[in-house]
Amino acid sequence: MARLEVNRSGELEVFARVIELGGFSAAARACGMTPSAVSKLVARLEQRLGTRLVNRSTRQIQLTPEGCAFYERGVRILADLEEAERCASAHAAPRGRLRINANVPFGHHFLLPLVPEFLARHPDVTLDITLTDEVVDILEQRTDVALRAGPLKSSSLVARTLGFTRMVIVGAPAYLKRHGTPATPDELLSHNRLGANYVRAQAGWPLRHEGHDVVAPVTGNAQASDGEALRRLALAGLGLARLAAFQVSEDIAAGRLLPVLEDCNPGDKEEIHAVYVGQGGYLPLRARAFLDFLAEKVDIDRGGPARPDARRQAGSDPGGHAPHADRRTGRARKRHVDP
């Protein structure tokens, strides 16, 4: 009977707040407790479990491997509890802080323009948004949903596909006037090819010429930390850049950038994912509302927020189900991806 005397869901919630808010003091304020009470609660939890969950220092709280596993599973349990309460109340609404980490191009062209509408629809939700093209550790950064482009490696996280974007090499008219427009991969090698400096940047630009696949190395005189910075450098006439089509569709339409070597474009596409902790379990209501909102509003092929009358919804089927989802339960199917 000893287990019944322990409020394990309450412990889980406090522990999760410690991790998500980065310390005992912030968690104490959020939970209406004192920092000392929160610290003692975590210590009691560690004693009951027989393992250390966090490494404490004066500056930060860092999860141990055991703590990371406990937090991940605990978040799923809390999400299931929230879902059960939502099902029991037809009037429940998404609420709470939602931490979003998005790559910079997606953030600028899709996410940020939609924030006012999402918050108007869900006024009890608070968004905490970080834009970076670097891969982040979702657990370490206390991120609820990460929005990423490109291939994903295996892990215990779950991915929901939002759509696909083709890649295109572009240059400013002024740059092409000065240096000429390359017509073959060999001619491309004499041009200034702007690249990214983050870890997951591709080693080169894939091309297809005369039936053969080739890769042009990126050896320009400038690198940048995100796709939007590369776009700005290309617009300034510094060199050529290979970017997502949705980033430059308006620039191309307006003549600010011109596509290059489209005859040699291999047609490869980058997949845009929403990644979250869960291993197929229910999401917190606020996270699910956010993902459903993106599926409704984002049309990556069009290069921006979907028109209200758009029939096709990026990242969902006509019935409104997420890709990799079980139609009977609404649960996301397990898809392991890189944390």
Describe it.
The chain is α+β, with helices and mostly antiparallel strands. Among the domains are: 85 residues, Orthogonal Bundle (Arc Repressor Mutant, subunit A); 74 residues, 3-Layer(aba) Sandwich (D-Maltodextrin-Binding Protein, domain 2). It is built from 10 helices and 15 strands. Strands 3, 4, 5, 6, 11, 12 and 13 form a 7-stranded mixed sheet that branches. The chain has a two-stranded antiparallel ribbon with strand order 1-2. Strands 7-10 form a two-stranded parallel sheet. A hairpin with a 4-residue loop joins strand 14 and strand 15. Helix 1 packs across helix 2 and helix 1 crosses helix 3. The longest helix is centred in the N-terminal third of the chain and has 24 residues. The chain is elongated. The C terminus is likely disordered.
Question: Architecture of the domain at 2-86, CATH level 2?
Answer: Orthogonal Bundle
Quick one: CATH class of the domain at 2-86?
Mainly Alpha
Radius of gyration: 23 Å
Please report the total strand number as a whole number: 15
Low confidence ranges: 306-339
Order of helices and strands: HHHEEHEHEEEHHEEEEHEHEEHEE
**Kindly, what is the distance between the CA atoms of the first and last residues, rounded to a whole number of angstroms?**
38 Å
| CATH superfamily annotation of the domain at 2-86 | Winged helix-like DNA-binding domain superfamily/Winged helix DNA-binding domain
Q: What's the helix count?
A: 10
The global form is elongated
Strand content: 15-25%
Biggest sheet character: 7 strands, mixed
Structural class determined from secondary elements: alpha+beta
CATH fold name of the domain at 2-86, please?
Arc Repressor Mutant, subunit A
Mean pLDDT: 81
Helix content: 25-40%
